[in-house]
């Protein structure tokens, strides 16, 4: 496979390790089971503050759960401005791809709550504290639905104005968020920060360098893995980031390592800091383009990306598909992909607040 295609798959995190680029010990396989809806006695919600960012005294915080239309129970952190009264504009937040709500999405949610919005940072299906079996599965359909399920929940709250709901998707969930905005007309404003188009990078590799023959070879390899999983009764993991770096890795891999494998952003429930996604999760993304109907989004969209990000072209190309004078692309000077995960002095908080106040009136 062409090296640029390989790097794209590494970045996606879907088949990390299965390509043999990094030497990662084979993790214990997950049981092959459809499981039960997650709302049962085995679902545990950590009540202690275990985020990668400090707790704010300007907002209240509580754990909540809600179900998506597939019957999977999602776990979320609700952030509410202190002394807030009446019905508020609300924002649902998720991402990055393979992260948990205790990381970047929680930071975005808490900060936007400090700025006057009721916010909800949720773990996608099959990850973090949310339900779903088997674990660590990604799906362009179900993960898009997760955003709409969050909107469902917000519409039921007495302190939320159901006509003033927006979403923030970070990294791979930026693409899911745009897809949700194309589907769900209740979403009035969407921010996609440091966005990844997971279907594009999985099917085509980094900068679309993967050939049809290489894509066929990947499909063949992943379907052979499905056969092996079916016969063994266990689902193999793709493996994750290495525990140590050699120094020869691409800059963006070093950036991911610096976030997911160090004190800066490591969280034990994040699969990006552990064994990664199930090896066969890539398959559905290869034939289900997420942004096919992005051009039909009538609500407001703000794309934010770093000037130095290897992934910048995803937002630039997505912006070309969007139509209307309520769409905007903001490039942050000198910023990398991962800078927009947690760098408080880099993330354009004032711009996001203005965007949501304008379009969630």
Record keyword descriptors for this entry.
361 residues, Rossmann fold, two-stranded antiparallel sheet, 11 helices, 10 strands, disordered N terminus
Global morphology? globular
The end-to-end distance, rounded to whole angstroms, is: 50 Å
Strand content: 15-25%
- Give the second-level CATH assignment, the architecture: 3-Layer(aba) Sandwich
Mean pLDDT: 91
Report the CATH superfamily. Alpha/Beta hydrolase fold, catalytic domain
Compute the CA-based radius of gyration.
Answer: 19 Å
Number of strands: 10
Describe the 3D structure:
By secondary structure, the chain is α/β, with parallel strands linked by helices. It has a single domain (3-10, 57-359), classed as 3-Layer(aba) Sandwich (Rossmann fold). The protein is 32% helix and 18% strand. The strands form two sheets. Strands 2-3-5-4-6-7-9-10 form an eight-stranded mixed β-sheet, with helices on both faces. A two-stranded antiparallel sheet has the order 1-8. Helix 4 (172-183) links the parallel strand 6 (160-170) and strand 7 (187-193).
Short description:
The protein has 361 residues and is α/β, with parallel strands linked by helices. The protein contains eleven helices and ten strands.
Annotate the secondary structure layout.
Blueprint lengths: L2 H10 L17 E2 L27 E9 L5 E9 L6 E7 L9 H11 L3 E5 L17 H17 L3 E11 L1 H12 L3 E7 L4 H7 L7 H21 L1 E2 L15 H10 L21 H4 L14 E7 L5 H10 L5 E6 L6 H4 L6 H11 L2
Parallel strand pairs: 4-5, 4-6, 6-7, 7-9, 9-10
Antiparallel strand pairs: 1-8, 2-3, 3-5
């Amino acid at each position: 496979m062409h090296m640029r295609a390989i790097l794209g798959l590494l970045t996606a995190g879907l088949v990390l390790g299965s390509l043999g680029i990094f030497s990662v010990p084979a993790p214990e396989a997950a049981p092959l089971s459809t499981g039960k809806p997650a709302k049962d006695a085995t679902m545990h919600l950590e009540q202690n503050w275990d985020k990668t960012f400090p707790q704010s005294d300007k907002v209240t915080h509580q754990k909540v759960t809600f179900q998506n239309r597939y019957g999977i129970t999602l776990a979320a952190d609700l952030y509410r401005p202190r002394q807030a009264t009446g019905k508020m504009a609300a924002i649902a937040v998720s991402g990055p791809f393979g992260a948990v709500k205790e990381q970047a999405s929680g930071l975005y949610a808490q900060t936007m709550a400090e700025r006057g919005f009721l916010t909800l940072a949720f773990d996608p299906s099959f990850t973090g504290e949310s339900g779903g079996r088997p674990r660590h599965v990604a799906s362009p359909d179900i993960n898009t639905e997760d955003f709409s399920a969050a909107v469902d929940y917000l519409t039921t709250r007495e302190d939320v104005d159901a006509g003033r709901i927006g979403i923030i998707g970070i990294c791979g969930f930026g693409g899911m968020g745009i897809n949700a905005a194309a589907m769900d007309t209740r979403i009035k404003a969407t921010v996609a920060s440091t966005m990844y188009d997971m279907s594009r990078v999985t099917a085509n590799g980094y900068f679309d360098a993967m050939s049809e023959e290489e894509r066929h070879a990947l499909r063949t390899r992943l379907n052979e893995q499905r056969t092996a999983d079916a016969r063994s009764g266990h689902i193999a993991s793709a493996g994750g980031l290495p525990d140590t770096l050699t120094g020869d890795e691409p800059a963006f891999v070093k950036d991911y390592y610096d976030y997911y494998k160090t004190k800066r952003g490591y969280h034990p429930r994040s699969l990006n800091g552990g064994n990664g996604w199930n090896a066969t999760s890539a398959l559905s993304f290869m034939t289900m383009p997420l942004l096919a109907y992005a051009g039909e989004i009538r609500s407001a969209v703000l794309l934010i990306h770093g000037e130095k990000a290897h992934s910048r072209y995803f937002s630039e190309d997505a912006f070309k598909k969007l139509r209307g004078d309520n769409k905007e692309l903001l490039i942050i000077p000198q910023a990398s992909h991962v800078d927009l995960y947690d760098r408080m002095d880099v993330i354009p908080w004032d711009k996001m607040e203005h965007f949501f106040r304008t379009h969630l009136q």
